[in-house]
Structures are given as C-alpha cells and as structure tokens.
Design brief:
With about 425 residues, the chain is an alpha+beta fold. The chain is built from 13 helices and 15 strands.
C-alpha cells in the first residue's frame, strides 16, 4: 500500500488503525507551460483497488469536452479511496491543475457554515429548537419571534433577500445587512422553505458572532480547518491566491430559472448586484469568503472533512461533532417545493439531504454549489465525497450535474463490488 490507498478488503479489516493522511498546506505557484494540455494526458492521482472505473469516468468527462479543470475525491475513515485531479486551472489552458489547486465552492460553503453552527449547538451555545430571538433579540421584529434556529438553518425564515436593492459589498460588510434582515418582514412563514442563496450566510454568521464572539470565517479556520488539518477557507489569504483556479462560465442565461412559486421571495433572492462568480472580481469574492457561497477548497479536503464526520470511532481521534448533535443537525426539518426555484428539496439544519444527488442512502447529507461543486457524507458507508470543477454548468434543479453523475455511478458500482 505504498500509494496510501486502500482496497475494499483493506478497509474492512485494517483501516480503523490508520492515521489521518496529511495534506500539504501550501504549494508554490503552478508552473506555466506552453500550449493547451491534452485533457486525458493531464489526469493525475490514484484510486484504490476496485475503484478503477471511477478514474475511467473522470477521464471520460475530460475526453467528452465537459470538463476544463476538476478534482474528485472519496475518503473513508481517514484514508483516500479516490483522489483525482486534472485539466486546466484557467480558460487559456496555460496553467495545469495541480495537486493543491483550489476552487471557488459557491453554496457548497453552506455545508461548512452548518458544521460551525452544529459545533456551537454541541457546546451548548446554541439550541436548534430555541427561537433565534433568544440570541438575537432584534430578530423578533415583524412577527419572527417564533422562528427557531433550526427553522433559520433550513431556509424557513422567509428572508431570502433584502427588500430593496443590495450589492455584494453589503454582504461583505455584514453588519448593516444583518440589522436590515432582522427588522424585515418575512416573505413566508415556517412550514414552507425558500432557498436563502446569500442571506443564509449573513443570518448564520450573526448567530455565531452573538454566541461565540468570532465571525463564522474565523471560527471555521480555528475550530474546523486547523483541527482536521484541511486546506479550506472562508476568506482566501492573498498568499494562497496563486493556487486558485479561474472559474469559467458554461452557463446559458436563458435556462437559469423558471416560474417560482413565490415571485417576491425569488426576486429578493436574486436582487444582489455585483456577484458574478466567473467574472473579473472573483478574486475579491474569494478574499471576502462570504459564508453562504465564498469558500475556497478542493475535493480532497472536503471529502476528508465529511468523512471525518461519519468515520468509525477510533481511540485518540476526537469527533468534530458528537453523534447526538450530528443527528440533530442532519435530520430532515423541511421537505417540499422550494419557494424560490420551484424545485423539490429536503433540508436539515443547513445541510441539503439526499434528493437523488448523493446516492441511495436517504441519510446522506452535504451541500452542492452553483456551477457544479458538491461535498457530502454517506453515513452508512462512512464515505466523504467531493467534486470541485472550475467550468460552471447550469444548475440542474431536479438532478445531478452530468459530470458528477458519471463519477457517482462508477463510485457506487465499485462500492457494491459490481
């Protein structure tokens, strides 16, 4: 096992005693090369015995022209089953994806923010069943006094966006926007949900600030990334920017939305100007790292993190979140029609629950991001799985990104031993 990868048999009989694999926390700038790399020739990494079809699927995504640059990883009990990366880190093809290339996560960041809230519940600083106003009295305005922390985290607070124009700078600054949302009349009441695409982060961040004193970005760096030993950021330091892949749009703007059940809530959710994740200011977005969609990492680190949450108990390995609180954090709190997008969805306390996207286990939890990134845990298989691309496809509201679907089909076939 010189590669550090495990076969299925190794995992069953010997993985419990393996130490958590280390991840390099810094890397030199990628070397520029002449000419556009041939996609298949730029695939790197390894897979455990029995998971070779996953590599084939990853290569096929590039060969078909769907991918520009991407990373796919799967971990179990601290050990990698799959760790593959390749392609180009920019649109020109002049910068190859490296082992430690980082990607803008978009709403996959929400899963990281949800972990921070769960940790504060675990420490007794928050309670999912308590009213938000217990910790943030101003939030009770306009009839929101009964909205619980669990309601807020599961997109039931009715604050999908500010009533009136806003800019991405308002989200960077945070304080004035948080006060505005606390004073605002909701677009709907708990019992239905509407996706809080950007305001999710503002609301969760304010709870962290009021109960812990740190921002959610600082809390994540101190209590999650450093303790698990992962390269993941809500606010990418300037010293690490050279590692960031350029996000490139493959969007068709005519098919990004459809008739929403609650037009006012949908309009508010999309009213913020200046946030174009593939635009010229994406470096600024990574620097500020808003907790709803501005995180930066890659599939290896996210798979390692999610696997850590559901790993088998091992002496000397402290859980990030206790089993009891993880069950509270990942139980279904709402299911139905999204008032913003019109999709069917099922949410826990910040985590998206499996809706055909994370395999067949209904208890799988995680989050996906606009454009294709995904990270989730399958508790039954003790898997952490993540995919991070830099070519952003249209959201596929009712299913899985076709690139990820091919990878998951191969992964779960390997899991079944077929």
């Amino acid at each position: 096992m010189e590669s550090g990868f495990l076969s299925r048999r190794d995992i069953v009989v010997g993985a419990a005693g393996l130490p958590l694999a280390g991840v390099a926390m810094a890397a030199p700038p990628p070397e520029r090369v002449e000419g556009r790399p041939r996609p298949r020739d730029t695939i790197h990494g390894a897979v455990a015995q029995g998971y070779e079809p996953v590599r084939t699927a990853f290569e096929s995504n590039f060969a078909s022209g769907k991918e520009l640059g991407a990373h796919f990883a799967v971990y179990r009990d601290g050990a990698p089953l799959v760790d593959l990366w390749g392609g180009s880190a920019d649109e020109t093809g002049m910068v190859p994806v490296a082992k430690n290339t980082l990607y803008t996560l978009m709403s996959t960041t929400k899963g990281l923010t949800s972990m921070c809230i769960a940790m504060l519940v675990d420490r007794g600083k928050l309670d999912y069943e308590a009213p938000v106003a217990k910790y943030w009295p101003e939030f009770a305005a306009q009839g929101k006094g009964a909205v619980t922390v669990g309601d807020l985290m599961s997109h039931q607070a009715g604050l999908t966006g500010p009533r009136g124009p806003s800019t991405i700078e308002d989200f960077y600054e945070h304080k004035a926007l948080a006060a505005q949302l606390a004073a605002q009349e909701p677009f709907f009441r708990p019992g239905v949900f509407g996706y809080h695409s950007l305001t999710f982060g503002t609301l969760a961040d304010e709870l962290v600030r009021r109960t812990d004193g740190r921002t959610v970005s600082r809390f994540f760096a101190d209590e999650v990334a450093s303790k698990v030993g992962i390269d993941a950021f809500m606010g990418l330091p300037a010293t690490e920017e050279h590692r960031a892949a350029t996000m490139v749009s493959a969007m068709d703007p005519n098919s990004l939305g459809f008739d929403p059940p609650n037009p006012a809530a949908a309009a508010a959710a999309s009213s913020t100007s200046g946030f174009i994740p593939w635009g010229p200011d994406q470096r600024k977005d990574r620097e500020h790292g808003i907790p709803a969609g501005g995180g930066t990492s890659n599939a290896r680190n996210l798979a390692k993190l999610y696997a850590h949450l559901v790993r088998s108990e091992q002496p000397g390995v402290a859980p990030l979140i206790s089993k009891a609180v993880l069950q509270q954090a990942t139980r279904a709190r709402i299911a139905g029609v999204n008032q913003v997008h019109g999709e069917l969805g099922r949410y826990a306390a910040g985590f998206r629950l499996d809706q055909t996207r994370f395999g067949s286990n209904p208890a799988s939890f995680g989050h996906c991001g606009f454009g294709g990134s995904t990270a989730f845990a399958d508790p039954a298989r003790r898997l952490g799985v993540s995919y991070t691309p830099n070519r952003m496809f249209n959201p596929n509201w009712y299913g899985t990104d076709p690139r990820l679907a091919a990878l998951l089909n191969a992964l779960f076939a390997a899991e079944r031993g077929t």
